[in-house]
Amino acid sequence: QVQLVESGGGLVQAGGSLRLSCAASGSDFSANIMAWYRQAPGKQRELVALITRGGTTNYADSVKGRFTISRDNAKNTMYLQMNSLQPEDTAVYYCNTRYSTLPWGQGTQVTVSS
Fold first, then answer.
1. Quick one: 66 exposed, middle or buried, by C-beta within 10 A (0-12, 13-18, 19+)?
2. Which of 21, 63, 72, 110 is the most exposed place for a label (fewest CB within 10 A)?
3. Which residues pair with 111 in a beta bridge?
4. Cβ-based neighbour number of residue 89 at 10 Å
């Protein structure tokens, strides 16, 4: 049974930082292009960043230069370092493969106050 568990969210002031983690169990994590997504209230889920198994990364324009995605294939874990957070980054953050092929986890709430 594949399971994705996101953690590390919280409440932070604008300009602050958070580091999210995604732990994957029961799947061949290292074989997949992995991604972080987010869903703000009343909005569709959007792709934030992705990383290939070799470490090539890509980011949404809205987070480029502020967020950094990384992965540790040996630990089946992926990370999202978020700096210079803004209120518009407030959302529930999820991890999944690039094409959302795994069951969604519960996500982790990130709230940025102004």
1. middle
2. 72
3. 11
4. 22
Phi, psi of 31 (to 5 degrees): -85, -10
The pLDDT of 6-21, averaged and rounded, is 98
C-alpha span between 2 and 36 (Å, rounded) = 17
Contact call for residues 14 and 86 (beta carbons, < 8 A): yes
| Half-sphere exposure at residue 44, Cβ-oriented, CA atoms within 13 angstroms | 2
Summarised one tens digit per residue, pLDDT across range 47-71 is 999 999 889 999 999 999 999 999 9
User: Two tokens at 30?
Assistant: 């290292």
Write out the two tokens for 63: 């987070």
Note the pLDDT tens digit of each residue in 78-105: 999 999 999 999 999 999 999 988 999 9
